[in-house]
Structure formats: structure tokens, C-alpha cells
Specification:
This protein is mainly α. It is 45% helix and 6% strand. The protein is built from ten helices and four strands, in the order αβββαβαααααααα. One of its GO terms (biological process) is methylation.
Length: 231
């Protein structure tokens, strides 16, 4: 039997290990939650504990829309943190952090910036800023090694604010300059080189070294000079 002190500490620390072990309800809001709910921790005197979601519902409490305590354990809806992290990763990949910052990402997810930072760090070992930086660097590397775009074009296409930021990030992540990364691309992935100009005197569009077939007029016998007409 879990004592009340342990239960409240689990709620205060949002300890997911206690999810399914008990549920808590907040009398001032009429909502019941899981211990790991990311909402603001309620005051101790306003909290009631239940062994099951059904018991909380029978007492007139509604399920929280953020932590979904009424979901089936093990389902996608139950595993809220994994779902939030998955959504965050997709948004970071789409450039939300680059355009709107961490605050914009947090608003889209329905959490505070601190909660997003904590959940991402716990699940993938890095926060949103570091993940966005890695995403930009990866995009830049792909463009460097598979396209003929200029360094400036790649820097802005990958989401960097400036060419200097682009250069600094590439050096920090890959320990190489953008030019070195491009040169290190596998031969099959390198962008096609521009065709060399034709040699002087060659006809445009003719293969180098190929002989051009003379025109019929050039092979005909020279015309005889006209004789002066007699008067």
C-alpha cells in the first residue's frame, strides 16, 4: 500500500513509474490525472487519490485532456511523453524551432519550454536547440554532397541565419569545412561537373576530336570560269 506522502511526492515529481498504480484528482478543478501529468502541481490539501480511473469517475471527476488517465495502459494515448517527443521531433525536422524558437515549439505542443526541454532530454538525450542545430547540419551536408548549389545558397536553404553561422556549425559538428565535406563526398554522389568548353576552331555541338562530314557543295568539282561573251 502506497502511503499518501509517497503519492504526493510522485505527483510533485511527475514520476511516470507510478502511472497505473494510482490516480489523483484535484477538487478545485474537478479533474483527475495520472501521477506523471505535466500540469501544475496542485496543493496537497486539494488532492484526492484513487486506485482506479473508474473510482475517480464515480466520484464525479473528469479525465484530464493532457495526460489521458482514461486511456488503456500501453496504448499510444497512454504513453504521452513518447507521443509528445515524437511530435516535437517532427516539428523540429519541419523547422519550427528555426522559425519560431523553442517557445513557439512549446506553444504548439501545449507545454512550457522547460517541460519540452526536460522531456526531449530524457528521451533522446538533447534539447530542442541542439536537435534543431543537428538537423540543419545534416541538411547542409546532404546538399553539399549531392548538389551543385553554392555555399551561400546551401547555408540559407538549410535554415542557417548567416553564412558565418553555417560555417561555424559545420566545423563544430563535422570537424571539417564545407568545402572539405563536399570534396569528401563519394564519387557517385558528387554533383556533375560542368562540361569543358570546346577547343578553339571546333564546331559548336561537335564531339571533341570528331571529324565533321563535308557538305555536298564542298565535294563537287569547282565551277569553270565563265568565258567572256563575244560581241
Amino acid at each position: 500500500m502506497i502511503d499518501e506522502e509517497t503519492r504526493y511526492e510522485a505527483v510533485r515529481s511527475r514520476d511516470a513509474r507510478f502511472d497505473g498504480e494510482f490516480f489523483f484528482a484535484v477538487e478545485t478543478t474537478g479533474i483527475y490525472c495520472r501521477p506523471s501529468c505535466p500540469a501544475v502541481t496542485p496543493k496537497r490539501q486539494n488532492v484526492r487519490y484513487y486506485a482506479t480511473a473508474a473510482a475517480a469517475q464515480s466520484s464525479g471527476f473528469r479525465a484530464c485532456r493532457r495526460c489521458r488517465p482514461d486511456a488503456v495502459p500501453g496504448s499510444a494515448a497512454w504513453n504521452v511523453r513518447a507521443d509528445v517527443v515524437g511530435r516535437a521531433m517532427r516539428m523540429i525536422g519541419d523547422g519550427v524551432v528555426d522559425r519560431e524558437g523553442v517557445g513557439g515549439l512549446a506553444v504548439r505542443l501545449g507545454y512550457s519550454a522547460r517541460q519540452v526541454q526536460r522531456q526531449l532530454t530524457a528521451e533522446v538525450g538533447a534539447g530542442p536547440v541542439a536537435l534543431a542545430r543537428a538537423q540543419r547540419a545534416h541538411t547542409a551536408r546532404v546538399l553539399l554532397q549531392t548538389t551543385g548549389l553554392s555555399i551561400t545558397e546551401i547555408a540559407f536553404a538549410a535554415g542557417f541565419a548567416s553564412v558565418r553561422q553555417f560555417n561555424d556549425t559545420i566545423r563544430a559538428v563535422y570537424a571539417a569545412t564545407p568545402s572539405e565535406l563536399r570534396a569528401a563526398a563519394p564519387r557517385a554522389d558528387r554533383p556533375p561537373a560542368a562540361a569543358p568548353p570546346p577547343p578553339p576552331g571546333s564546331r559548336s555541338g561537335s564531339p571533341t576530336g570528331a571529324r565533321t562530314r563535308p557538305s555536298p557543295s564542298s565535294t563537287s568539282s569547282p565551277a569553270r570560269p565563265c568565258r567572256a561573251s563575244r560581241r
